[in-house]
Amino acid sequence: MSVPYKLRATEKPASEKIPIIARPFVSERAKKTLDIVEKFVEEECIPADTVYQQQIGETKAERWVAHPPILEHLKKRARELGLWNMFLPKNHFKEGAGFSNLEYGLMAEYLGKSGIASEAVNCSAPDTGNMEVFAKYGTESQKKQWLGGLLEGEIRSAFLMTEPDVASSDATNISLTMRKEGNEWVLNGSKWWSSGAGDMRCKIFIVMGKSDPQNKNVYRQQSVILVPADTPGVTVNRMVSVFGYDDAPHGHGHITFNNVRVPLENIILGEGRGFEVIQGRLGPGRIHHAMRSIGAAEKALEYMVARMNDPRKKPFGKQLAEHGVMLSRVAESRIEIDAARLQVLNAAIMIDSADAKFALKEIAEAKVFVPRVALDVIDKAIQAYGGAGVSQDTPLANMYAHGRTMRIVDGPDEVHMLQLGRNENKRGKALLEKIQGYRKKTDEYLSMYGLEKKDILQLDRELSKAKL
Ligand SMILES: Cc1cc2nc3c(=O)[nH]c(=O)nc-3n(C[C@H](O)[C@H](O)[C@H](O)COP(=O)(O)OP(=O)(O)OC[C@H]3O[C@@H](n4cnc5c(N)ncnc54)[C@H](O)[C@@H]3O)c2cc1C
Question: What 8-state DSSP symbol labels residue 23?
């Protein structure tokens, strides 16, 4: 592997900025790769973002068939640099690049600074989670048919769970029907927010449906099944936008299933095991999103500080950096980003030490906290740019729009908050007893010293008058 980059004299390389708490868990190989990721993103991917946007084209006819050449250029370059499939954690998968969740998490931060870097190194959602599904639960034949192409970055995939007609943050509501007929499953219903479904290279849909609606256990009514994108009866009707951004060429599809037939063996893991599949899929993915969001927040802070020092812009006779409120906003941003990073890295270390289930609490905390931090920092950066901040002249408006979706994607904040709150509240009875225990012990001490319990702020007006 060649290391073609010279380090900039002014900034420490990424490997030297790893928080000290995480350092013992990061191998020398991962540190070297991290530095290469940083340089690749900074020097090749970020400048290519604009080229990518231009190569997608302008018309509807162009944008949904586009495959910008700059992306293939970057993918080739990434492979030369040894940057490929770093997301598959080494303790659970043999197919990846041999890094831990923590090590990849550190790299994902840099990938989050560019719109195309993740795909350039074959680490972009939803393919990452989908590849994990294949690697973890797929049969040999399912892996042979789909996993190879995904690992090579030749095809893309989509995960279809959310539906337009039900509250999908509660997956027991999923209503796409799956009926068995002979050797086939027959699917009917509709899905939306199927990210990646607009891409011409998207060949396989991983679909959650209701296969056993009468099952008394509501968590065993669903199954996850593979549906090739070109199966008759599948129609991608339209794309849904994010604050007006179409996200072409990947997009977010609104898709209908009309008597779609797939073989019985397309089921993943087994009938009625849909919940297991979606839960297994999401843990590490949430950490990846969180680390990319931290990268976006760092980028926003860089933009903010740059704007504050732009000599052409001096409101009220001073540069922004000389207005105290701006420095205070920079400081707040730095504190928030550093705290959020520690939280995500802690969750990643916990996943590495066992599995995602072991880190459920920490993953949920990061899922809620990090997007808030990223949005807050991006918002401050937008403010520093004035009108330019909300325009197409900086990447900030787009970053804000996509950052905002992180509070909804993979389950809205409230669902995670509810779970965190419930778990915390399980201590309620024990805490009540503990506090009563303090009082009891205080009473014992008081009687030991012959004291009566009293409140020194108790007012006794009559006594005060007598003394006067
Ligand atoms: C950019 C983007 C990409 C996406 N990509 C995909 C994808 O690839 N595949 C896919 O299947 N889905 C995808 N989604 C969908 C996403 O996962 C869902 O939108 C999300 O799970 C919420 O489901 P819903 O939209 O049906 O909202 P609902 O379930 O209807 O919830 C609406 C609101 O109700 C509130 N709420 C929900 N539960 C509670 C609660 N327990 N307590 C209090 N309030 C609550 C929340 O404020 C929530 O936002 C994507 C969404 C976006 C925006």
Answer: G
CA of 263 to the centre of ligand 1 (A): 30
Q: Write the residue with the smallest CA distance to atom 6 of ligand 1.
A: 193
How sure is the predictor about 280, in pLDDT bands with cuts at 50, 70 and 90? confident
418 CB less than 6 Å from ligand 1?
Answer: yes
Indicate whether residue 159 lines ligand 1 (CB < 6 A). Answer: yes
- Cross-strand bridge partners of residue 180: 185
Give the residue, by CA position, lying nearest to ligand 1 atom 42: 414
Q: Report which ligand 1 atom has the smallest distance to the Cα of 166.
A: 26
Q: At what angle do helices 274-308 and 324-353 cross, to 10 degrees?
A: 150
Mean pLDDT for 255-275 is 97
pLDDT beyond 70 at 100: yes
Q: How far is CA 63 from the centre of its chain?
A: 25
* Domain limits, the chain: 12-124, 156-268, 294-411, 412-456
Residues 6+ apart with CB under 8 A from 325: none
Domain 156-268: give its CATH superfamily: Butyryl-CoA Dehydrogenase, subunit A, domain 2 (2.40.110.10)
CA distance 447 to 235: 79
Pocket test for ligand 1, best of 133, 161, 169 (most atoms within 8 A of CB): 169
Q: Is the CB of 194 under 6 A from ligand 1?
A: yes
Report field, pTM of the whole predicted structure over 0.90: yes
Class level of CATH domain 294-411: mainly alpha
**What are the backbone dihedrals phi and psi of residue 176, each rounded to the nearest 5 degrees, phi first?**
-55, 125
Ligand 1 atom at minimal distance to the Cα of residue 408 = 20
Kindly indicate the confidence band of residue 95, based on its pLDDT and cuts at 50, 70 and 90. confident
Segment 36-83, tens digit of pLDDT: 999 999 999 999 999 999 999 999 999 999 999 999 999 999 999 999
Average of pLDDT values for 188-208? 97
Q: Whose CA is nearest to atom 35 of ligand 1?
A: 414
For position 10, what pLDDT does the model report? 66
Confidence (pLDDT) at 300: 98
Instruction: Give phi and psi for 204, each to the nearest 5.
Output: -140, 135
Is the distance from the beta carbon of residue 195 to the nearest atom of ligand 1 less than 6 Å? yes
Options 1.10.340.30, 1.10.540.10, 3.40.50.2300, 1.20.810.10; CATH of 12-124: 1.10.540.10
Q: Are 289 and 407 in contact (CB under 8 A)?
A: no
pLDDT of residue 420: 96
CB 129 less than 6 A from any atom of ligand 1:
no
